[in-house]
Structure prediction request, 329 residues.
Amino acid sequence: MRASLALLSCVLCTASPSPVTAQEDAGALASRALFDEARRLMQGGQFQEACPKLEESQRLRSGIGTQFNLAECYEKVGRYASSWSLYLRVAADTKALGQPDREQVARARAAALEPRVARLLLQVSAPVAGLELTLDGSALGSATWGVATPVDPGEHIVLAQAPGHEPWRGVAQIPERADQVTLAVPELAPSTPALVPSRSDAPSDEPKGSPAPTLPYVIGGVGIGAVALSGLFGLSVLKKNGDAKKVCVDNPNSCPQDEIQRHEELLESARAARTAGLVTFGIGLVGIGVSAVLLLQGDAATDGGASGGFSIGARWSDSDAVLSCTGQF
Prediction:
C-alpha cells in the first residue's frame, strides 16, 4: 500500500500543468516552462526559488499537477496552512475527475500535515453596525469571527473598520510551531468629524466692509489703460483729419463726387474716433479716481480714522469731457 502511494505521489509531482496539445497559446507555453524550471529547482532543494515559479505557472494555466507540486513546495518552506489547503483542493479535484488513487495520495499528505498547521482566532466582543474585518487584505465574513482559521507562520495584519468609526489595525504573530493565537478586536471608537471653520467665523485682519486689497490696483490699471487708449484715438483723429484735408486740394470748388464722398467718410471716421477717445478718456479718469479713493479709504480704515462720503461722476459730448469729484476725508 505504501509503495502504491509513493508511486502515485511521484506521478503527481512530475505531472505537467496540462496535457500537451497541437497548438498552445503563449500563456500555456510560459506555464509549462515555469513548471519545468520549478521542478528542477525543487530537485536541487531550492524550494524558496521554486514556489514563486509554480504560483505563476498555476496562475497562467491551472493544473492538478501544478497544485500538488506547489503544495509540496509550500510544505518545504514552512507554509503549512497553505500546503494543507492545497492538498485538500487537489483531493477534491481528483475526486471530481474520478481519480480515487490520486485523491488518496493528496488526502494522505493533508492528514500528515494537519497537526503542524497553526491557527488564528479573531475575538470580536462588541461588533458595531457595519463592521468589516480583513486579514492580510482579504475580507473575512462574520461567520469566521470566533473560528480558528489556519494561517501560515509569520506576521498577519488584521484591519477592522465600520462607517462612522475610527479604523483599528492589529498584528498577529504566528509561531513556527503548531499553535492557536487569539487576537482580540476591540469595540471601534466613534469617529469625530473634523471641524472646519466657516468663512464668517474665520478671523480676518481686514476691516469688515473694506474692499479686497487688490481691487484698487485693478481699477487703477484699467483706468490707466483707458487713458492710454484715448490717446490712440486722438492720434487717429489727427491722421484722418489730415487725410481729409489732402482730398481735392488742387480744385476745392469743383471736386468730383467720389472725392467728396471720400472727404466726408474721413471726416465721419475722425468724428467717431474723437467720440471714442473722449469716452475712453472719461472712463480712464473715473477709474483712476475710484482707485485713489479706495486706497485712501483703506488707509483711513487701517489707521482707525473715519472716512466721509464720496461721489464721482463724468459727462462727455462731441466737444468736451468733464470729470467731477466730491467727497470728505
Observations:
- Strands lie at 118-124, 132-135, 138-140, 149-151, 154-161, 168-174, 180-185, 310-316, 321-327.
